[in-house]
Structure formats: structure tokens, C-alpha cells
Amino acid sequence: MNMKKPLVDEHGRVHDYLRVSIIEKCNLRCRYCMPEDPEWTPKEDLCTTDELLELVDTFISLGVKKVRLTGGEPLVRHDVDIILKTLAERGVELAMTTNGILVDQYIALFEKCGLNRINVSLDTLKPNRFEMMTRRTGFEKVRANINKLLEREFELKVNAVIMRGVNDDELTDFVEWTRDIPLTVRFIEFMPFDGNRWDDNSMVPMAEIKDKIADKFMILRGKDGPNDTTKHYRVPGYKGQFGIISSMSEHFCGSCNRIRLLANGSMKNCLFSNDEVSLLQPLRQGEDLEPIIRDTILEKKPSHAGRFRIAEEKNRSMVTIGG
Ligand code: SF4
């Protein structure tokens, strides 16, 4: 595959990280992600497996080096194994974000495909609260699968969306979890998406998260990667670390290298942009996708519009974007 010039936007950001929502459906019903009454895309407007792989290949030919599979819940897609095995031959870094429920059925395949970076979403360490937040059971399964991934030395991150009055009382419990385990726990600021009833008071900003943790622990600033969304910290002597993803209170758009491909074949140049460009229709009509993709990247704004504007604008539900 001959490489073309990279995907650079008007602000000099190189886009080499593709997040692919391979399915809109999920086996959980997390309140900040899945609306009461979700709008699903009709089947005929969703990518077939071949179309999805062809779109991903197009992005790889334009310089994408990392592909993260998301959903909904990627492991509920019936042929996720075919997608994994195919992408494993493409020489890109593979990663996945999952709710962890079905992970035990795929660990061997992850290892075979060289998929070593797994983010598991777990917003509470309390079984009852898990059921309240996800409207489903499965807490013990997720915990057991996290232990399995740790035993097999996957690079594991646990993502927890922090909401005021829901789970913000568990911040120090999560940090305590990193005492003897080489785990990264990441606290994500609650973000506005269609149907998740976001309001500014329900969001706990990074500064407050840090203060709540510093009330109990001495914390040191850790190291962040070049395009990192996370600000890392650690408690001296603890094997693991924690991080905060502050897209609402202190955004990190300046170093954004992310593109999103949705299950309906649409491209989003920003998580919060409500402009989407269909790549599926032109693909089905045999058109050249490169100019469409490049134009969409060139239209990318320097940063998101700010949480209040975002909350007012129509976007999508989180479950159909995949974060
Ligand atoms: S909000 Fe948009 S521009 Fe900012 S980091 Fe996220 S995807 Fe990138």
C-alpha cells in the first residue's frame, strides 16, 4: 500500500488515529451514553463488513497508524473476529474500547491479533450502583474480565465517567485500586450528547476531581503522550496511576489527531462537531474518497465549541459515536 501525504488540517494537526464505531448496539444501557429511546440507523444504511474494512483501508492509505474499535459495544458485533483478523494484517496499532462483559470470549483472539491496548468502561466499584447506572447486570463479569486482562498483561485502562451525585464519591476508591495493580484509571468529565440529560452541574470538572483526590492522597504529576487526551497523576509508591480527561473544562484540542468513522460509514472530524460526511454513499457509487476525506479534515475547527454551545447543538447519542 503506497503511502500518500498525511491528513493535516488547517491548524497543522496530523490525523493518524482512527476510532471506528463498528456497531451502534450494546448489551448495557449506560445512562450517560444510551438515550431512553435511541435512534438506530436502518440496516441498509449501515456498512457491511467489507465496506467497513474498505473504508478503514482507505484511511490507512492516508496515513492512519492507529485504529481503535468502539461501538456501542464492539464485542456484540457477530463478526468482530473477522474485522480483528483482517485489521491485524494491516500493520497498524490496534486498540479497543469495551464494556468488558464479553472480553473473556476474545482474549486469545486479541493476543493472536496483537491487540494489546484495551480500555474497559467501568464507572463504579459498587455492584448495585453498576445496575443503576447501566440498567443491566454484569458487574462481577466485568471485574473478573479486568483481572483476566491484567493477568495476561494487556495494557489496560479503566475509564470512569464521573457524574455529580452519582459516582463522584468513589474517586478515592478508584485511586486506591491502583495501589498494588499496574492499572491506569481514567476519570472522564461528563460530556453532553443527545439524550443523556447533561447539565453543567452534573459535570465534575478536572480541578474538583483533583482536589477531591488530593484531600486523601499525595499526588504527583505523571507523563502524558504527545496527543494524549489524559493528564496523568500517581500516588508515590503505587503500582498504577490515574488520569483525568478534561474535554469540557480544559480541552486538549490543540494536539488532536483523532478522526471518527461511524457504523453508517459517516466521518466525523470532531467528537462534538455536528457535521458528518457520508463516505458510504460515495463508496457505493465507486467515487474517489480521498478528496472527500481531505476536505473534511481541512474543515476541522481549532477546538470544540465549548460545553455550553455543545449542549445546545444537535449531535448524536454517545452510543452511536463510540466516544
Ligand atoms: S473535542 Fe474535537 S477537536 Fe477537541 S480533542 Fe475532541 S475530537 Fe479533537
Description:
The chain has a single domain, classed as TIM Barrel. Helix content is 27%, strand content 17%. It is built from ten helices and twelve strands. The chain has helices at residues 49-61, 80-88, 107-113, 127-134, 139-151, 171-177, 206-214, 280-284, 290-298, 307-312; strands at 17-21, 66-70, 93-98, 117-121, 155-162, 184-189, 220-221, 231-234, 241-245, 258-261, 266-268, 277-278. A twelve-stranded mixed beta sheet has the order 7-8-9-6-5-4-3-2-1-10-11-12. Helix 2 (80-88) runs parallel beside helix 3 (107-113). The protein is globular and about 60 Å long. Iron/sulfur cluster is lined by residues 247, 251-253, 256, 258, 270-272, 303-304.
Q: Radius of gyration in whole Å, from Cα?
A: 19 Å
> Which structural class fits the helix and strand makeup?
alpha/beta
- For this structure, the CATH topology is TIM Barrel
Q: List SSEs in N-to-C order.
A: EHEHEHEHHEHEHEEEEEEHHH
How many strands, which pairing sense, and closed or not: the largest β-sheet?
A: 12 strands, mixed
Overall mean pLDDT score? 96
Number of separate structural domains: 1
Number of alpha- plus pi-helical segments: 10
Could you give me the name of the CATH homologous superfamily? Aldolase class I
Query: CA-to-CA gap between the ends?
Result: 29 Å
> What form results from the Cα inertia axes?
globular
- Ions, cofactors, ligands: which are bound? iron/sulfur cluster
Q: In percent, how helical is the residue content?
A: 25-40%
Strand order of the largest sheet: 7-8-9-6-5-4-3-2-1-10-11-12
